[in-house]
Structures are given as structure tokens and as C-alpha cells.
Design a protein that fits this description.
The complex is a heterodimer of chains A (271) and B (196).
Chain A lengths: L10 H11 L8 H13 L9 H31 L5 E2 L6 E5 L2 E4 L3 H7 L5 E6 L3 E5 L3 E5 L4 E3 L11 E15 L7 E5 L3 E5 L3 E7 L2 E8 L2 E5 L5 E3 L3 E6 L6 E4 L4 H11 L1 H4 L1
Parallel strand pairs in A: 8-9
Antiparallel strand pairs in A: 1-5, 2-3, 2-4, 4-7, 5-6, 6-8, 7-8, 8-11, 9-10, 10-13, 11-12, 12-15, 13-14, 15-16
Chain B lengths: L5 E3 L5 E3 L2 H5 L3 H23 L2 H17 L11 H17 L1 H9 L17 H20 L2 H11 L5 H8 L3 H22 L2
Antiparallel strand pairs in B: 1-2
């Protein structure tokens, strides 16, 4: 360390440098120096206060811990705020059970049903009446007796906005709420996939094929081996089992009032 | 410093240090090594920290680290850059510690009347003036931000090159040089104020 600058100081800098260089070196307390020398020679530093880097390391650890805790808190809060309202079973006047992942629960026990309902749960409705399941402001499903579905996860507020459901058999009516805007729901049946981006529709999975009836908005239907078709409001799309093509027509007469009833009845919780 | 194994201390004493012995932690070699480098290490950490107690803490930490890492010392190379790097890192860790910040708020160099800035003159009056001037310079150095202070101290008192400073402070030689120039400008302003 002998190289001095190729630095050419100006007059002011030269004055400062002179003051610095003319300074006397600080010297340590003699007793401290001797004690430290003894410790250094013997290698026994046990009595030394090794506080300097430990304090710094502690500070670093604390900073990291605080940073991680803050990040974790932000993540938890974000996840909590992003989470959609959970599925809620509405009171039903029917008799029978809803089988949730193999566990049969009375349909009248709405609190018990609500506790058991989870995104991805497989549901089978064995009941005399329809059952409404609602994720407030986002999505409502009406299951008819005999229906077997896989419950979708309600879309998140900012992320996780695409979800999937399955209707293996039976008849499901679906209506979306105002918070559903911008989300996507894909519903698969043995014959097709329906892509929903905000609408009121029915998906009817029968032994001979699937029928999609759209009351409002537009749904897109893709047969398992076919191409995507748009299904506008007031129409239906049918795909026969094993067929790659779809057939369109007017919405089923019996379906329109039921979809209207579902939409109007749930307006207060969906909008 | 013509040989990595021999050196003159700030006090003018000359030592021949067996660096291979230091690697083996031979007590005699360690003693000579300590004598050779202690004054410089202490002066460096004192100038960087500006507090005798902090400087003592830092100096002992530096020698503890040197002792622990003695086996990594290269006997064929001048050990001063290695020691300076250790000392600078210890001071930097201290700067970052909350304890140091608190103590810095609570104390200043003025409060350490026993700070030993040794004047080379024998005349008591001149010695007093020189001590006063040294304290003003040290105060001015301490008034610099830590990044600028480090560059001035390493450059002026340790005679470190810009490349070495850059390596120690995690910057580029060009940036180190700019910091040095800026530090001198700042020091000039501070000294002008305190010496009026």
C-alpha cells in the first residue's frame, strides 16, 4: 500500500491534505495494548469483549427477521384480502343429504354444510329439492337432485382469478355476481367444457350428452373433440356423447324461468 | 515496506516478522506481528470510529479475527492490505450496529479528553496547539459521511491505492477516486468552519 495518487490536488485540497498529513497518530492506552498483545500471543481471547461484529450480526439478524416478518405479514394480509368469500349453503326445504367428499350431511344443516364445503370438494346431492351454494358477490350454483359436481374455487380479488369446476352428471344452474368481472370459470362435463366470463346459465349433463342453456351474457363451449362455439343469451348448445360437433337452438323452455328465478332470488347477495 | 516480513512501526521500531510462524501461531512470531501492526490498526480504527472505547473494541476484534484466520495468511505477500481489510470490515460492521449508533449519539470526541493524539513536538504550548489542531482534524474527518471518511482515512493514513479502497468498500476505483476528491472538498469546508 505505497502507491500515492496520480491525483493532482488543487490549492484548497493541498491545504486540507497538509492538515491531515501533519496530524499526529492516535495511540492506544498502554495497558490495553499490553493486554491485547498477551491475548493475541496466547490466543486466549476469552476475556475480550467481542462485541463489535456480534452486535452487527445481531442487528443484521434482527433486520432480516423483521424484514421476513414484514414480508410474511404483507403476504398473509394480501392472501387474506385476495381470498374470495367461502362457499355458503343456503337453507333448503328439501329432505335428504349432500355428500361432501364421501361424507353425507343433511341438507337442512346449512351451518354444517358450509363448514364442510371447500373448493375442489366433490358433491353429490341426494335430496328432494334444489340446493343453492353461494360465494357472495362472485358465484352461485344451484344443484338439482342427483347432481354430482366438483366445487370450483371462487376467483380471488387480484390473482387466482381462473377456476375450474366439473359437472359429472346432473343439472347445475350458475349465475355470476358483480365481483366476478374479469374472472374465468371453466366447467367440464363428460362431453364438453364451458368457459364462463360472467353470465347466467345452466349446464345439464345427461347420459346422452350435455346441454348448455344461456340466459344472459355469452358462454363459450368446446366439445371434447371439437372446436370452440359461442353460445349467446337466449340460446342453448348441445353436444351428444362422443360427438365432436355441437347443435344450437333456443334456450330450453323449462330452463328460462328457473334461471330467471335463480338470478332474481340471489340478486341481493350477488350484486 | 520492501519485504512482507519486515516493517517499521509508527513509533519507529523495526521488526522482522516470521509470517510462516504467524501462520503456525508461533507465540514469538505473533508477538512481533502484533508489534509491527498494532499501532497502524489502532490508528485506523480510531480514525474511522472517532471513539477510544469503540476503537479498543474494534482493535481487539481485529486481532481476534487475525488470530483465527492466521493459517490463511500468505507468507509471500505483504499482510497489510489483508489486515486493513479486516479492520475496515470490523468498523463497517460497527457502523451498521445499533449499539454504535446509540453510543455515537450519546458521545462525541470532545468528551474524550484522554484521547491520545500524540504530538511530535516537545514544547508544551506547541504540543497543546498541535493536539488541538489534531482534534479539529479528527472531528472534521468524523463529520464526514462514513463512505467518504473511509476513503480519506484509508488513502491518507493507510496509503491504500484506489484499487484497494475500491475492493474494500465494494465500489470501483473511479468511484473511490471521486469519493476521495469529494471528501477533501467536504473536509476543506468543515475545517474552514471549525478553525475560524
Amino acid at each position: 500500500m505505497t502507491e500515492r495518487a496520480k491525483f493532482e490536488p488543487g490549492a484548497e485540497e493541498a491545504r486540507v491534505l497538509e492538515q491531515i498529513r501533519n496530524g499526529s497518530p492516535p495511540t492506544a492506552d498502554v495497558a490495553f495494548r499490553e493486554r491485547l498483545k498477551e491475548d493475541f500471543v496466547s490466543g486466549d481471547f476469552a476475556e475480550l469483549r467481542s462485541v463489535v461484529p456480534h452486535a452487527a450480526r445481531r442487528t443484521h439478524r434482527v433486520r432480516w427477521a423483521v424484514g421476513l416478518a414484514a414480508a410474511a405479514s404483507v403476504m398473509i394480509v394480501t392472501l387474506a384480502l385476495n381470498a374470495a368469500p367461502r362457499w355458503t349453503a343456503l337453507p333448503s326445504s328439501g329432505r335428504g343429504t349432500l355428500v361432501v367428499d364421501g361424507v353425507a350431511l343433511p341438507v337442512r344443516d346449512t351451518a354444517g354444510l358450509t363448514r364442510r364445503l371447500r373448493p375442489g370438494s366433490r358433491l353429490v346431492l341426494r335430496c328432494t329439492q334444489d340446493l343453492d351454494l353461494v360465494s357472495s358477490g362472485l358465484l352461485a350454483l344451484q344443484l338439482t337432485p342427483g347432481t354430482e359436481v366438483v366445487l370450483p374455487s371462487p376467483p380471488g380479488r387480484w390473482f387466482g382469478r381462473a377456476s375450474r369446476a366439473a359437472v359429472d352428471r346432473g343439472h347445475v344452474r350458475i349465475t355470476t355476481g358483480r365481483h366476478f368481472d374479469g374472472s374465468r370459470l371453466a366447467i367440464t362435463t363428460p362431453d364438453l367444457t364451458v368457459h364462463v366470463t360472467g353470465t347466467t346459465l345452466a349446464v345439464i349433463a345427461e347420459s346422452t350428452g350435455t346441454c348448455v342453456c344461456v340466459l344472459e351474457g355469452t358462454a363459450r363451449v368446446r366439445p371434447n373433440r371439437g372446436t370452440m362455439t359461442s353460445v349467446p343469451a337466449g340460446t342453448r348448445c348441445e353436444v351428444a356423447r362422443g360427438e365432436p360437433s355441437s347443435h344450437s337452438g333456443e334456450i330450453r323452455v323449462a330452463e328460462r324461468p328457473k334461471l330467471l328465478d335463480l338470478r332474481d332470488r340471489l340478486k341481493s347477495v350477488m350484486n | 515496506m520492501t519485504s512482507p516480513n519486515s516493517s517499521t512501526t509508527q513509533a519507529g521500531r523495526s521488526y522482522v516478522v516470521d509470517l510462516a510462524g504467524v501462520r503456525r501461531r508461533d507465540p514469538e512470531a505473533l508477538g512481533a506481528f502484533f508489534e509491527q501492526h498494532f499501532d497502524r490498526v489502532y490508528a485506523l480504527v480510531y480514525r474511522l470510529l472517532g471513539d477510544r472505547h469503540a476503537a479498543e473494541d474494534a482493535a481487539q476484534e481485529v486481532f481476534l479475527k487475525i488470530h483465527r484466520a492466521a493459517h490463511t495468511l500468505d507468507p509471500d505477500r505483504e499482510p497489510l492490505p489483508w489486515i486493513t481489510t479486516i479492520a475496515y470490515n470490523v468498523c463497517r460492521d460497527l457502523w451498521r450496529s445499533g449499539a454504535y449508533r446509540l453510543s455515537k449519539q450519546a458521545a462525541s470526541i470532545d468528551e474524550h479528553g484522554d484521547t491520545r493524539l500524540v504530538s511530535r513536538t516537545q514544547d508544551p504550548e506547541q504540543r497543546l496547539l498541535a493536539a488541538e489542531r489534531d482534534q479539529q482534524v479528527q472531528r472534521a474527518i468524523l463529520a464526514l459521511p462514513e463512505t467518504l471518511r473511509a476513503v480519506v482515512v484509508l488513502r491518507e493514513y493507510q496509503e491504500a491505492s484506489y484499487e484497494q479502497i475500491a475492493e474494500m468498500t465494494g465500489t470501483t476505483p473511479v468511484a473511490a477516486r471521486k469519493r476521495y476528491s469529494r471528501a477533501l472538498a467536504e473536509l476543506g469546508k468543515i475545517l474552514e468552519r471549525v478553525m475560524v
